[in-house]
Every structure is written in structure tokens, then in C-alpha cells.
Amino acid sequence: MRLFSYTRLCIILTVLITIFYLYWSVFNFESNESVQIGTGRPVLLPTKKKLVNSHIVTVAVVACGDRLHETLTMIKSAIMLSQVHLRFIVVTEDNLIENFQEKLSEWQEFTNNAFTFRVMPLTFPKDNAQEWRKLFKPCAAQRLFLPSVLDDIDSILYMDTDTLFLTPVEDVWEHFNNMNSSQMAALAPEHEDPNVGWYNRFARHPYYGPLGVNSGVMLMNLTRMREFQWVNYVIPIYKRYKLKITWGDQDIINIIFHFHPDKLYIYPCRYNFRPDHCMYMSVCKSAERAGVAVIHGSRGFFHLEKQPVFTAIYRAFEEFQLGGDIYQDFYEPLENYLDLTTETSCGHIIGIYLKNLRRYIDIKEDNAR
Ligand SMILES: *[C@@H]1O[C@H](CO)[C@@H](O)[C@H](O)[C@H]1NC(C)=O
Ligand SMILES: *[C@@H]1O[C@H](CO)[C@@H](O)[C@H](O)[C@H]1NC(C)=O
Questions:
Q1: 285 and 164 within one domain
Q2: Domain boundary residue, one of 211, 232, 267
Q3: For labeling, which of 72, 171, 274, 327 is most exposed (least CB within 10 Å)?
């Protein structure tokens, strides 16, 4: 009798240990995803963070050369403001892979695993890999091939390295919900004013709409882009227009959507706010109304002194350490830096840069009370 119950105890213990082991390996599997290079593993999410439209909010970036630090600052801005679980995909040169992995793992610890990430080497489609490599500079063209390179991913928010979030990532992501069934990408116009627009005055190739689109902040429904066979359009268009192209991949994107305008959704300029929007006069009405959502320091403006607003905002994000007090260590210094720019053309209306941040930080303070 006693022997029997001893055996039973052993069985129960074995079962419990097995369950515990399975549970543990599932969690371990999850944290592994963050250090895998280029695997297509599904992600298991921490439970406390919610999903937006049932897809993981995914920010993708292609970083080469001296863009390591700038890219990390963009990623930091996303982590600071978002309240949902995020996934980052960084496609980069071999010699930067370790730097990204190291920093992002460290940030995962500081943020209680608020995000997962994948760092991948530059990759080209398996078919004709040689041809792709011959035709393009690797980094410039990489983004055009993401629909086939990220073949296990439904959608991404593609960000240029010289961008910063002034609002939670999910505010941009939610535009996926506004797209109709033919639209596979979202972009902001290249310009608001035909008198100073680039494409309408200088381009020698077709482009989207009256003034073209800027590709720095791009929602991409990769599922739909694969259905459209996006990658098959890239090479012929490149071959046909290569002598007329100035802005590389952005021009190719403009040409494709020129011929397929029904497949592109346009969001307002406040989702891709550039120096052009304020240098001469304030032309981005949506930013004046609802605040800048994403700021894009194109043509090096985060690092030049030409428009101090851009350097001020970059500096505040750069100096903030994740885990610090976002109000005291980020918002207050930012306000101080911006106060010094009010005499400049982009600094006339500093409220537009702070509007969304203020809302986010207010919400946080309310929650704390
Ligand atoms: C992308 O498109 C596919 C196919 O139409 C759809 O199932 C999916 O929900 C879309 N993704 C997002 C984020 O809207
Ligand atoms: C989606 O919207 C675009 C732009 O308004 C339009 O051209 C296209 O016909 C729409 N597609 C559907 C399926 O309604």
C-alpha cells in the first residue's frame, strides 16, 4: 500500500517536472528569438502588452555605414513612447550586427522585455541574387526586397535611420486599418507646395501624384506586396530608368506607384515631417493641427546646425537613457533646448513638436496618480 502511493507520488512529480520544463522551454524559446539572425520563428508575446489589429507592431530599418548610433536613437524613441509590444527588425552590414545585438539586448533588460528584435545581414532574393548585387549598392536597394526577404512577416513600418517618433508607434501603425483592400503601402507626399516641389520641377521619370512621395516612413503590407509580386517590378523599372534616377529607391517606389496609384494610401505630412516643411514657411497643416508624429531629419539635418530644432530634438532623445524618468530626463531638457530655437524658421511654432509628447506624458502622469 505504502509502496503504491510512493509510486504515485513519483508519477505526479514527474508530470509536474515535465510540465514545468515545457513551460520553461517555451519562455526560453521566446527570448531566443531576439538573438536569432534571420530566422523565421514565430514570436510569443508577453501577456501584459496588447496587440493592434492582431498583427505585431513591427518597425524595420536598414542601417549601413556610420548610421549605427542614429538608428539606435530612432529605436529608442519608439520604445520610449509606445504602449504596445514592439518588434524591431534591423537589416545591417555584417560588421554592425554585433553592436546592434548588444545594445538591443541591454535595452530589453532595462524595459522588462517590452520588445523583441531580429538583427539580420543584408539579404537578397535567392533567385538572381547575383543580378541584384550587380545592379544595386547593397544597402540602398535592400528595402525594395523586404517583401521577399521577410517572407514570414505580414507587415512592417519601414523607417529611415534619420527619423524619430514624437508619438507612439501604434498611432502610425493604425493607418493600416484605414487602408482599403487594394492598398499595400502608406507614404506621405514629398512636398506640399508645387512652387518648391522637387519631382514636379526636376524629375525626368514618372512619379506618384502631383508632387511625388517621400519614402522615409513607409507602412508596408508585405503580404499584399508579395501578392502583387512587387520584387518582380523592381529590376525592369531600374533597368529602364537607371540613368534618370536621382534619389535611388525612393524614385523606384514613385515610379511603381505612378503606374499603380490605387495601391498606395497617402497619410498627411505630420507622419513624415521634414525641414522642407518649415524652412521657408510652415507648409504642413496637419502638423499645425495635430502635432508632428514622426520627425525626419533628412539630408543630415539632425547633425547640422542649419535648423536647430532638428538638432535639439535629436539631442534630447540621444541623451535620454532608457529606464530613466521620461518627464525629467527627456521632456524637460527637450523643452529647454527648443526654447533656444524660437527665433529660427522651424522654431516659430515649437508647440507642434511637443503636442503629442505632452499628451503621452500627461496620460502617464494620470495613470500614476
Ligand atoms: C495585410 O494584408 C493581408 C492580406 O490582405 C491582410 O490579411 C492583413 O491583415 C493585412 N495586414 C495589416 C496589418 O493590415
Ligand atoms: C482604394 O482607394 C483608392 C484610392 O482612393 C482607390 O483608387 C481604389 O479604387 C480603392 N480600392 C477599393 C477596392 O475600393
A1: no
A2: 267
A3: 327
Centroid of ligand 1 to alpha carbon of 182 (angstroms): 10
C-alpha 77/C-alpha 320 separation (Å) is 9
Q: pLDDT (tens digit, 9 = 90+) per residue, 41-83?
A: 333 344 344 555 679 999 999 999 899 999 999 999 999 999 9
Residue 133 lies in a domain: yes
Same domain, 97 and 168: yes
- What local confidence, expressed as pLDDT, does residue 141 receive? 84
Question: 281 lies in which domain range?
Answer: 275-368
Q: How many domains does the chain have?
A: 2
The pLDDT assigned to 337 comes to 97
> What average pLDDT does the segment 267-287 reach?
96
Distance 54 CA to ligand 2 centre (A): 23
17 assigned to some structural domain = no
Q: Does the beta carbon of 224 lie inside 6 Å of ligand 1?
A: yes
Domain co-membership, 219 together with 283? no
The strands making up 213-221's β-sheet, listed across from edge to edge, are 115-121, 86-92, 57-63, 155-159, 213-221, 185-189, 264-266
Residue 287 and residue 245 share a domain: no
CATH of the domain at 100: 3.90.550.10
pLDDT score recorded for residue 34:
39
Q: What is the rounded radius of gyration, in angstroms, for the C-alpha atoms of the chain? A: 23
Distances (CA, A) of 110 to 45, 115, 146: 17, 11, 30
Cα(264) to ligand 2 centroid in Å equals 9
Average pLDDT over residues 133-159: 87
> What sign does the CA torsion over 90, 95, 96, 102 have?
positive
Ligand 1 contact, 155 CB (< 6 A): yes
179-202 mean pLDDT = 93
Mean pLDDT of the chain: 87
Instruction: Return the residue whose CA atom lies nearest to atom 9 of ligand 2.
Output: 262
Residues 294 and 180 in one domain: no
Give the pLDDT confidence of 137-149 residue by residue, as tens digits.
768 789 999 999 9
- Residues contacting 125, CB < 8 A, separation 6+: 132, 145, 148, 149, 231
